[in-house]
Sequence to fold (443 residues):
Amino acid sequence: MSSKAALVLSAEEVPFPPGVDDFYLPDLLGGHGVWLTKFTLMVWLAVAILIVFFLVAYRNPKIVPTKMQWIAESIYGFNRDGIAKDMLGHEGVKFAPYLATLFCFIALTNIFAIVPLLQISPNSHFAFPVMLAAITYVLYWYWGFKAHGVWGYLKMNLFPPNVPWPMYLILTPIEFATIIILRPFTLSLRLFANMFAGHMMLLVFTLGGFVLLNAGGLLAPVSILSWLMAVALTIFEALICMLQAYVFVLLTTSYLQSSLAHEH
Amino acid sequence: MRFLAQPEPEATPNPILPHWEELVVGSIAFAILCFILMKFVFPKMEETFKARVDAIEGGIERAEKAQAEANQLLNQYKAQLAEARTEAARIRDEARADAEGIRQDVLARAREESDRIIAAGREALAGERQAIVRELRAEMGTLAVDLASKIVGESLADEARRKGTVERFLSELETARAS
Fold:
């Protein structure tokens, strides 16, 4: 939050070290509500950008694509062929629209973390990754039940075949925990923690630079190093943003794969 | 969550507890996004992909068809050309044969004509000869009689006798020549 840091710089009182409070700003009306905050606004913004982009890019599709159409097709094709078809085979194509939507939404909301003025990802609030993981959760249970029946799906997961029976004493509770709670929890937590930590890192080095500068003396020049570090981490953060979007979609597909598979 | 009761404004929220309001907002926003993209954009992309595949496959098929058509046309032209060549050769041969025939005809007719003319000339000559012989024979008779009467000195007035004598003499003459 360099803007915030700049504001308080004159007061010579940089809030350091940054904490959890930095993720919970006052709402847009200056109160402490949750409905209309920077975070909800960014989610709406992401949705609006994606809808407008795809509708405009695909307003008038041609056999020989225009540049914008080509970009839109590439994003979809990456999820369709690179993830869905690759992992689920031909029947995976029917999941491609959802996976592509999921990827676009996570990627864009993640990248907000390094977009000037926004500079934080909505996914650093646990609610949004939880919401996305919940959809994945419902999806893989639903398709598991549909493919194998309720009992068949549970049996397949809780009692994997070709395992000596005493192993079930260990395996079954682990598998049970996995499909019931671990999968959605790790899925949402991974995304949330990455975005949360990424923002925290940027805060530490950006605000740290001001702290060092204000400290004066020999420490002041070190602030340059701190800010260089912030720049490097911003580039690193961009990589993390894309990677986490990819990982989320990949894991969702992987869970679907295990639900649809004939063998565990 | 900004906890269940009215929270203390200063209380630091637990980041691992999601705000239910954000769950609601996120769900609605994401649902709208899913609805629009999955209904209006990605199915259209699938259609375009399919149309593209069709266009490429159709293009190849059309090209193959055109190629086959061209080949067929070429073969047809070649066949027609060969046919025309043999036809021309045939016509040339025929013409040559015709010319030969006409030449032979003309020659034969000319030969016939010349033969006919020669024959006619011969005939005419023979007729004339006959006429001359007949004339000479009559004249010679008269002359001989005249000469004989002059020599003999007597007039052979008797017509019948005179005529018979001459005739007899001439006949004798002829038989003598013929024998």
Observations:
- Residues 1-8 of chain B have pLDDT under 50 and may be disordered.
